[in-house]
Every structure is written in C-alpha cells, then in structure tokens.
Amino acid sequence: MNDLIQTLARELDAAPEHVENVVRLIDEGATIPFIARYRKELHGSMDDQLLRRLMKAKKVLLEKGIDVRVVSMPCQEFFDQQDEQYKEAVLPNAMRKRLSVEMASSFGWHKYVGLDGITMSIDEFGKSAPAQDVIQSYGFTVDGVVENIEKLLK
Question: How far is 88 from 1, CA to CA, in rounded Å?
C-alpha cells in the first residue's frame, strides 16, 4: 500500500498524507486528492488525464491567488448514499462557486454545482478526431478550467 501511496503522490504532485486519506475514503463515493487552504472550490469527476489537468489548473490558479479544492467523484450514487456529515465535509454548502468537469454529459451534475455553479461537459453528440483535438475543442484543458473558475468568481 505504501508504494501505491508514494506513486499516487508523485503523479498528483500531492503530499503522501493527503493521498493516504484519499485511498481510505475512495469507497465512500468521492475523494479530495489535494486539500489546501481554500476560499473557493473546484469540483469534478475525472479520469486520470483529466485529474492531472485539474491539478495543473489548481497550480495556475494558486499562482493567481485563487486557492481551490479538487474533488473526484467517480460514483455519484455511492456519494449520495453517504451521511450528511460526510457530504458536507466534501462539498460544503457554504461553497457555492463550483465547477464540474465531465468529459461526457452534464446529466446529474447540476445537483452538485447548484445554481451558482458551472458544468463543463459535452451535451451534444461527440466529435470524431484525435483525442487531443477533441479535448482542445471542448475546452477540457488547463486554460479552459482556469477560464471557467475565473468566470465563476466575477
């Protein structure tokens, strides 16, 4: 288990103790791969490549003085089954500026981002092109995430 934690910490550029907490919580439906002092939050369900982009966006935003939290929610159903205390710890009601990043439909994400949030998603039939071209076209990039967070904060 220690090797897994060290590898994940290196891949996510996160402290091993934060990654260890993620590994413990992963069966509860949502995790926080990196926790910092924060004023606003960045939320999303993500695969490995998207998670890396979100972590890079976090760094860019921090350099601009915007501290965010990245939350991975691989299974909404499991998350919804958790008690209110856990859900509040992961997605505090007081944090209303939320962004979900889903390289698929936005279906289901509005209940997590709320009325003040934004969903980055694909709500149309997909495109046929090399993966990086499609990712760029839909804005699932570090710059795209940073732009949406800045839009949320205006």
Answer: 28
Express each pLDDT in 56-99 by its tens digit.
Answer: 998 999 899 988 888 888 778 878 888 888 888 888 888 888 99
Q: Which uninterrupted H or E stretch holds 145?
A: helix 142-153
d(Cα 47, Cα 68) in Å, to the nearest integer? Answer: 19
- The pTM assigned to this predicted structure is 0.69
Those residues with Cβ within 8 angstroms of residue 84's Cβ, 6 or more apart along the chain or in another chain: none
Contacts of 16 (CB under 8 A, 6+ apart): 5, 6, 9
Is 142's pLDDT higher than 90?
A: yes
Q: Output DSSP code: residue 128.
A: -
Count of CB atoms situated within 10 Å of the CB of 89: 13
